[in-house]
Amino acid sequence: MKKLKFLVAVVLLVSINLSQAQKIKPAKVKKVMKTVADWQIDHYRDAFSSKEPHHPLDWTNAALYVGMVKWAKMAEDTKYYDWLKKIGDKHKWKLYRYKYFGDDQAVGQMYLDLYRKYRDEKMIKPTKEQFDFILLHPAKTSLQWNTPYCLDRWSWCDALFMAPPVWAKLYNITGDRKYLDFMMSEYKATTDFLFDKKENLYYRDESYMAKLDNGTKIFWSRGNGWVFAGLSNIMNELNPESEEYRYFLGIYKNMAKKLVEIQTPQGHWAMSLLGQEFYPTPETSGTSFYIYGLAWGINQGILDVETYEPSVKKGWNALVSHVTKDGMLGYVQPIGAAPGKAWPNKSEVYGTGAFLSAGTEVYKMYKGK
């Protein structure tokens, strides 16, 4: 029996090493991205984490659109832009339910990106009007969790992916600093509150600061993935010579250094980032966001290729190994706020969005090689 277990372990180790050693070819990256994008469009209204399909303007789908826009730019097929545009037209380019709630602003990222392509004022008008109202009536509530109206500000780390890039894009498009100034003020407040300077990771919200999981601090993988990908999306909108860009760059570099240190041998990141021995199950949404952010940094000349490319390569090969023949990305953790479980036959729209974001930067990395 011991000999059999040893042989099984050897086979698994060899298969993992072979997978990680596979060369990444741009054509294959593009092919798997198309398969995943097409599958998701076909299954767009399927329910995964919930009994009913997510509302088209919900944060779950907004994260999908962020990746789908990036894919549309490289797809050489207008059907992806057409699909996104129909969603905006159907909902009159309005943000989702609550005026101050960061998650409900996330769909604005897609609207503003489509505005840049089509230059149709109706695509940007509702977002601009809502943000102008917020500027005139800013929330004064606490960032402490479960206090009254704490969700009117970015009191949870996921929000740093959802809302700040919309403010940054609006600043870039209009040239009006009031959008940038508001974003910077609120982002700094959240970071000062939720960022652990020792670990260079974000707590999901205040309620996790005093908790331990198997003796380790709880840093949720997808939660930090939201932040890390959001940093790239924000910096894309800023002048690299600006003070604001340098602020985000500092956070980004600290997180990137930490992330490569805690990546698992299999290539993914554990659902509890500091507790991989307790969470061996792969998780593809957080991993996709990390691969996106790291590959983006290499492409921007921010991260050293020799140091960071092995992590991107290992992570991308791990992600692709969890894509079914039909194009479903498996092992996406369901909706949550903390480390949990994931399954090979369970997906989610935000996982697909993260995968498509990752693919665009991985493609750029290897296109010239």
TrEMBL record:
SUPFAM superfamilies: Six-hairpin glycosidases. Keywords: Hydrolase, Signal. It holds the Pfam family Glyco_hydro_88. GO terms for molecular function: hydrolase activity. One of its GO terms (biological process) is carbohydrate metabolic process. It comes from the Bacteria. Residues 1-21 form the signal peptide. InterPro entries: 6-hairpin_glycosidase_sf (IPR008928), 6hp_glycosidase-like_sf (IPR012341), Glyco_hydro_88 (IPR010905), PolySaccharide_Degr_Enz (IPR052043). PANTHER family: UNSATURATED RHAMNOGALACTURONAN HYDROLASE (EUROFUNG). This is Glycoside hydrolase family 88 protein. It comes from Flavivirga rizhaonensis.
